[in-house]
# Entry
Amino acid sequence: MPLELVRNDITQMRVDAIVNAANPSLLGGGGVDGAIHRAAGPQLLKECKRLGGCRTGQAKITKGYGLPCKYVIHTVGPVWRGGGQGERLLLLDCYRNSLELAKAKGCETVAFPLISAGAYGYPKAQALQAAVDAITAFLLANDMTVYIVVFNKEAFELSGKLFSDVVAYIDDVYVDQHLDPRREAMGRLDRQDNRPFTAPEPWEDAPLMAAAPPPQQKADPPAGLEDMLSQVEEGFGQTLLRLIDQKGISDSDCYKKANIDRRLFNKIKNNPAYKPSKQTALAFVIALELNLEQAKDMLSRAGFALSHSNKEDIVVEYCIRTGTYDIIQINQVLFKLDLQPLGY
# Structure
């Protein structure tokens, strides 16, 4: 995916470049900065000494040395001073300037930490939003895979109501789907009597009288295989291209909005028999802003269905019902819930 949230140690990311949330001296420090210098080795510090520091919002590049990446891009984030001192603009500059440096070096994959969200005190939810805004704006005009790397869920916060609303919807739909009403009812009765729940004996489930079988209906004769094959419906790729035309958008608008790599889109476009993953199919459902019935039809053409026994499906269903078609926002919710993001 062009933009992906991952939980990892950034010093372990096998990408072309990782970004270091550095201090103005570029001579190492605590947090991510210190971890990167330790993993890269003393040669990184030696090169950094020749760079003469870095101003807030700017970026400079070095080799990766002992890290599993070619380059380290050092950028200095703003210290949070309440939000009225131009902090957001400076933070956006950190991402833009780092990405431009990566592009100039021919990088295809770049990993960022959440800049300024640690010791510099930038509110995590706002820091994440700034990162997403800057990276997605860059990716609209450039082909690159960018990772936002967080070390643990505690370092990841979301703003707005979407996350809490989705959690409530999952509780309503998923719990109802998996609840055994009869067992739950008997459990309540047993709890009222202060007795442990006991499963019913087999004969207690038997009906008092066998129900009469339903009347037999005369079945239509089965169609021949040739007739059935002649009625094969439009496939996923054909449907995707038709809907893109109907929506009046370009191919690039569609795959970028779906957060899908251009090469994967071309596979689907050029091979009518190509079967995408469910996460890819759902990404295009969101990109095309389909309603629930259209979404179900689109998925069926790839051999999938929406299910209330699957939490990822419930999240997507909720977003469709509420008109939430921002795939990056949806993926943030899925990430926070430890569920698989849309795309690939």
